[in-house]
């Protein structure tokens, strides 16, 4: 999947965040992976597939797409900083959302110890695989990303 537009937009957004924040942020590499894991959980919470105890698993598609876009923001920040090309291969190891989710969590946690190009590409690809299971198309990703990107610029302006 070619995410060049998103990569370029994220570079600009991250620059705007850096200019408005503490430049000596400690533990940034750890915090961005934690943020990524939290966003993965928020996305999964909107999908509800893992909630074996719940009968009504109706999905609010708009909320799901917004949470997915949050993960795209953090993954892209990690990816471009490690010189990953914006052409990302979708990795759908499982057709079952919960199994793909567990696989994605496993790959994401590897980023704490080793942000190698291989691990980052795998993490991004696995996340896109979750999106594919949920029938999230590139147009959905781009539209949701742009909407969230605008919110993030507003947050910078409002000193969020």
TrEMBL record:
InterPro entries named among the record's database cross-references: dUTPase/dCTP_pyrophosphatase, UCP030140
CDD domains according to UniProt: NTP-PPase_dUTPase
One Pfam family from the record: dUTPase_2
SUPFAM superfamilies (alphabetical): all-alpha NTP pyrophosphatases (SSF101386)
Protein name from the UniProt record: dUTP diphosphatase
Species assigned in the record: Metamycoplasma neophronis
């Amino acid at each position: 999947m070619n995410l060049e537009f998103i990569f370029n937009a994220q570079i600009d957004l991250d620059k705007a965040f850096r200019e408005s924040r503490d430049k000596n942020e400690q533990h940034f590499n750890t915090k961005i992976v934690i943020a990524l894991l939290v966003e993965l959980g928020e996305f999964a919470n909107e999908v509800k597939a893992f909630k074996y105890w719940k009968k009504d698993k109706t999905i609010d598609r708009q909320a799901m797409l917004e949470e997915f876009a949050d993960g795209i923001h953090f993954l892209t920040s990690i990816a471009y900083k490690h010189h990953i090309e914006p052409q990302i291969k979708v990795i759908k190891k499982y057709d079952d959302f919960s199994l793909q989710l567990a696989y994605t969590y496993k790959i994401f946690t590897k980023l704490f110890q080793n942000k190698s190009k291989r691990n980052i590409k795998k993490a991004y690809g696995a996340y896109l695989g979750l999106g594919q299971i949920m029938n999230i198309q590139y147009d959905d990703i781009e539209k949701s990303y742009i909407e969230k990107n605008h919110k993030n610029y507003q947050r910078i302006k409002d000193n969020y």
